[in-house]
Design brief:
Elements: E1 9-12, H1 13-18, H2 20-26, E2 32-36, E3 39-44, H3 47-69, H4 79-90
Parallel strand pairs: 1-2
Antiparallel strand pairs: 2-3
C-alpha cells in the first residue's frame, strides 16, 4: 500500500524515541514526517512553519468573509462624524 508523504525529510518512530531533538534538528527547520512501519504517523512541524500555517488559515477565513460580503450594500460614512460619536459616547 502506498501513502502520500508530505515532507522531504522522514524519520522513524524509533529514531524519534532514540533522539527526539536530534531527529528534529536533522530536519534543519523543515517539517519532518515521522513514520511508523513505513506509514506516516505524524508530522513534526517547526514553530515558525506552524505559525505561518495558522496565519494562512486566518487569511483564508478572512478572504471567505470578504467574498461573502462583496455584494452587500455600501454605506457612506464620514470619519469625523464617527470620531465625534465615539467621543460623545465616552463623555
Amino acid at each position: 500500500m502506498t501513502f502520500p508523504v508530505l515532507a522531504d525529510i522522514a524519520a522513524s518512530v524509533t529514531d524519534l524515541k532514540r533522539d527526539p531533538m536530534g531527529t528534529i534538528r536533522e530536519g534543519q527547520g523543515e517539517t519532518v514526517v515521522i513514520l511508523n512501519r513505513n506509514e506516516p504517523a505524524f508530522y513534526a512541524v517547526p514553530p515558525a512553519r506552524y505559525q505561518a500555517m495558522l496565519d494562512l488559515i486566518d487569511d483564508m477565513r478572512l478572504a471567505d468573509i470578504v467574498r461573502a460580503r462583496e455584494n452587500d450594500p455600501v454605506i457612506a460614512v464620514d470619519i469625523d462624524d464617527l470620531i465625534a460619536q465615539a467621543g460623545g459616547a465616552d463623555a
